[in-house]
Amino acid sequence: MSAIKVTEIAGHVEFTNVKCSPLDKNFADFEYCYIKAINRSYKYVSLKVNLFKMPVTKVKVNLSLMKRFNGYRPFLYNVTVDACNYLKNPSKNPIAQFLGGLYLPFTNMNHQCPFNHSLILDKLPIDHLNHQFSSVLPFPLGDYAFCTTWIAYDIIRADVKIFFTLS
């Protein structure tokens, strides 16, 4: 008699686009911003932003999750976080902790302020987002955009949007 292992069927994330927009090119600009497909099942997002006025000691980030309903509409989360305070104690804000957990493990932003180097998101893989959107906090199927707006010294400096489908 053979054993049959039944596993729960979970959603599958597929990157569809990434858009990086510098809004103050005197402060920062993107060196690269892309999705790379290694094969049919392994894709990742990478980006690098060069900072021109360092050190950066006052940073806020607006994190929002949008779902496509006749255009992208706010879905579940839209928070603005003082990034410097968050990096000192991430557990104080569970929503920011979940949203930051989507990308922070793949960045060089794993320390407290100040930032005196380029900021890199290195090879954010689909399987990490699959885990976040199926096991950590299950989401309904659909098209999503994870939008971040980066604010330094109370001036909006850049937008990053990662588009994906959960099917």
UniProtKB/TrEMBL annotation:
- Name-wise, this protein is MD-2-related lipid-recognition domain-containing protein
The protein's organism comes out as: Drosophila willistoni (Fruit fly)
Q: A Pfam family for this UniProt protein?
A: DUF1091
What InterPro entries would the database entry show?
A: DUF1091
